[in-house]
Design a protein that fits this description.
The complex is a heterodimer of chains A (about 100) and B (about 210). By secondary structure, chain A is mostly helical. Helix content of chain A is about 75%, strand content about 0%. The longest helix of chain A is centred in the C-terminal third of the chain and has 26 residues. The radius of gyration of chain A is 18 Å and the shape is flat. By secondary structure, chain B is mainly alpha-helical. Chain B contains 8 helices and no strands. In chain B, helix 2 packs parallel to helix 8 and helix 4 packs antiparallel against helix 8. Chain B starts with a helix and ends with a helix. The chains are: A mainly alpha (about 100), B mainly alpha (about 210).
């Protein structure tokens, strides 16, 4: 197919629907663990599952998977800076 | 400078989808850091007042929080599918999917409105005399809750306006299978609004 947008990459509908299903399932796991009130487990589940959910949206829905290394690197630097800030803040808070 | 036939043709239809997308992402980075700063504030205060934050989280309506998550995740799916539809030259389908995204966004805002109304009715809002009686950590929790979900809600409203304009452009035919960068950029914005909500759900509703 000839298109003027040479970079075009059409993702099959099924991929998006699968990702959506996984996102809903992960949300269900989070809600279940939080209602179950197992504190340690639910905190760890949140810390692990929430970034996975965000990552799935970024990687598939936001097409990051098909973007250039430049763009991926830019996102890495932006999020990396934020994570460094969060780390520094916890370093400060926990040794007060 | 020479002007070949190629460069004249390029000037007439000058488009730079790659550049447009990088520009959009740069804007999204500023949004991530804006909310990131608020997440930082939340974490610092949660570390200081863990019990008050727990009690604050317990008093929020979890059903609405989870329902709105399902609504936003589904709206992210419909906007992603609408881009595929445009790429495949299925205009009617694209319009339907974009319309569904807009309806889901409105449902989200309606739920938010119901939730906030109930809280305000119970005297829970920033600076309220009822809230002033609560422990200090809970006052901070609700301050952050109204600020962060309010700022997020504002983003949903802006996203809906953007989606409305995109719907009109698809309808008019100026977004089509050979030129859909605008729709992609609008979609990116809507997905980011979804990503932010993915973090807000556990911070406020589930972390009790």
């Amino acid at each position: 197919m000839e298109t003027s947008e040479a970079h075009v990459h059409i993702v099959p509908n099924g991929t998006f629907i699968k990702v959506w299903g996984i996102l809903l399932a992960l949300t269900a796991v989070l809600v279940f663990l939080s209602e179950w009130q197992h504190e340690l487990l639910s905190v760890w589940a949140m810390l692990i599952i929430t970034p996975i959910k965000a990552g799935l949206v970024l990687w598939y829905f936001m097409h990051l998977k098909y973007e250039s290394t430049l763009l991926k690197g830019m996102l890495f630097i932006a999020l990396g800076s934020l994570i460094i800030f969060i780390g520094l803040m916890f370093l400060d808070v926990s040794f007060r | 400078m020479t002007h070949g036939t190629h460069s004249t043709a390029a000037a007439e239809h000058h488009r730079d989808p790659e550049g447009a997308k990088i520009g959009m992402w740069l804007f999204l980075f500023t949004e991530m850091l804006l909310f990131g700063g608020l997440f930082l504030l939340y974490s610092a205060y949660r570390a200081r007042y863990p019990l008050d934050f727990d009690n604050g989280g317990k008093s929020l309506n979890h059903v609405i929080g989870v329902a709105n998550t399902v609504v936003l995740l589904t709206s992210s799916l419909t906007v992603a599918l609408s881009i595929v539809a445009v790429q495949r030259d299925q205009r009617k389908r694209a319009l339907g999917l974009l319309g569904a995204t807009i309806v889901l966004g409105i449902v989200f805002l309606f739920n938010k409105y119901m939730e906030w109304s109930a809280e305000i009715h119970h005297g829970i809002y920033p600076g309220s005399p009822v809230l002033a009686e609560h422990p200090k950590g809970e006052i901070i929790f609700f301050g952050l809750y109204f600020t962060m979900t309010g700022l997020h809600g504002l983003h949903v409203i802006v996203g809906l306006i953007v989606l409305g304009i995109l719907w009109a452009l698809v309808k008019k035919g100026s977004i089509h299978k050979d030129d859909f960068t605008k729709l992609e950029c609008g979609g990116l914005y809507w997905h980011l609004v979804d990503v932010i909500w993915i973090f807000l759900l556990p911070l406020f509703y589930l972390a009790a």
